[in-house]
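User: My collaborator sent over this chain with a note saying "see what the structure looks like." That's all I know about it. Can you take a look?
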Amino acid sequence: MAKKQDHRKKSKKIGLAPGTLVYTGLREKEEIGIICYSYNVEEVEVNIYKQDVDIELLKPKKDITWIDVDGIHNVDLIENIGKLYNIDYLILEDLLNNGQRPKLDEREDFIFIVLKMITLKENTDEIEYEQVSFILGSNFLITFQEKPKDIFKLIRNRIDHGLGKTRKRGASYLTYGLLDTIVDHYFLILEKFELQIEELEDKVLNQPTKEDMGRIMDLKQNVANFKKSISPIREIAIKLENSEFFEDNVKIYLKDLYDHSIVISENTEALHTRVSELIQLYHSSIGNTMNETMKVLTIISTIFMPLSFLAGLYGMNFEYMPELKMKYGYYGLIIIMIFVMTSMIVYFRKKKWW
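Assistant: Without extra context I'll predict from the sequence alone. Here is the result:
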């Protein structure tokens, strides 16, 4: 089902000064986890910390440092990380706002990126949205995730085992890899939408029900939410290609990211159109079903009209009706009724009205 956005926490920001740090999400009790990767071509050091970590341990060590923060509800921790890496409060404020629109802000010492990680909840059709924020500097990357679900497992594995180009390139290449992973998952959501639309189209064409309309409206809301979340991706990809924080040998890959963003945007727009057409198809199919029902009822009524006339004619209480005295009058009337009914059915069949 489509979910409505929760505004209860966001209302706490009303009237506060710009740069005031307030977490707007609903996860407040979970322990925050931090994974710190420090690596170069030859070696990698991985440290796992909790939210009470000595903040000095998160300073850059080797050539590249990647700090992955799982959870953003501890405002003090986020503020301390911001101080350690000279991140201004306006950026931290946006980071803590889990309803932030996907965006890119470039500062003198770092670049700030916000994307929506969109995944399917395991064994269900429910779509989960998670905000992922990136702060990329010259030799470091800090990522902030809301939930423990991790789609970056393959990239972690490359770093751990020195596979691919990740440890041979800078922090910008790592950033590209993470962004590309998020965008690739968008295609999985599009495929799910495609299957749902095809399933509903078959159902609506063959045997539409009231429940189908509810499913269509949920699908429409899900596609609209998805479209809203991915629409800024193309603009972000363009800005990334022009950013000084990405080396020329990485910008080649960003072109591919831009191409993916175009395909996703176009496919999403096409799906949005198909859902609107599906609503029209539902109403048309319901109308056709109703017309077929009325057609059958009308034909049945038409067939019984002359039969009712004959039955009513000889059911009148006149004392002198010659046919009533006939020995085989009853059987004759039945035969006439059967003949009339059969003739009308044959006529309707010949005209293809039934």
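A starting point for your reply to your collaborator: The mean pLDDT is 86.
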